[in-house]
Amino acid sequence: MGALFSRNGSGDHFCTGSVVGSPGKSVVITAAHCIHTGKGGAYQRDLVFVPGYRDGEAPNGVWPIGKMVVDAHWAQSSDPAYDVGFAIVGRLNGRRIADVLGANRFGYDAGYHNHVRIIGYPVGDQAPISCANGTTKFQTNQMKVDCTGYTVGTSGSPWLTNFDRTTRTGEVIGVIGGYQAGGDTDDTSYSPYFDDAIKSLYDAAVFSEG
């Protein structure tokens, strides 16, 4: 898990992301609204991913983000059911990010009721927060979970099933996003449901690795 920053990793982080497994070992998942402004807008520019960010330090490096992928439904109409995005990060010192950090597995069609761990970076905090709880169905294509303290900056935080405390990895079945851009209160968060459409988006990101 890590924080998204503009430009060189200085200033405030504004969203959260996490590495997901892929053949090219370079894919990061987050919320679409973190990397694309939605209807009538465009992709953000000059973004970097800082995994393991803590106390102003980047222990695992500052990774440049290159290509980004969101669904056309998000880009054209800001459809909250498609508020999921993927970023391709470049190599750092010749190494690929998943080789350095490991990666979560990408999961989909896992059902609406799961026990998940959510790890994210609230704006202004110098370390991530973590919460574990059960998910429920909010509405078609949207899940919800109750966790306290998930303020601005935690958008894109992964919802992980089968979390391994040793490797700090699991299976990503959601990200904070979707309804109300992930929620307008600090104690309830939302995620688009990862269905075949989100799997196709993941496949497009893998293709973009080249």
Descriptive notes:
This protein is mostly beta strands and 210 residues long. It has one domain: Beta Barrel (Thrombin, subunit H), CATH 2.40.10. It is 13% helix and 36% strand. The chain has four helices and 14 strands. β2 (15-20) and β3 form a beta hairpin. The longest helix is centred in the C-terminal third of the chain and has 13 residues, at 196-208.
Q: What does the largest sheet look like? A: 6 strands, antiparallel, barrel
Q: Write down how many β-strands occur, each being a DSSP E stretch of 2 or more residues.
A: 14
Cα separation of the termini: 23 Å
Known CATH architecture: Beta Barrel
Gross geometry: globular
In round numbers, the mean pLDDT is: 95
What would you give as the CATH superfamily?
Trypsin-like serine proteases
Order of helices and strands: EEEHEEHEHEEEEEEEEH
The secondary structure category is mainly beta
* Low-confidence segments: none
Helix content: 10-25%
CATH top level is Mainly Beta
> How much of the polypeptide forms β-strand, as a percent range?
35-45%
Report a brief summary of the structure.
By secondary structure, this protein is mostly beta strands.
Keywords:
single chain; 210 residues; mainly beta; Thrombin, subunit H; six-stranded antiparallel beta barrel; 4 helices; 14 strands; 36% strand
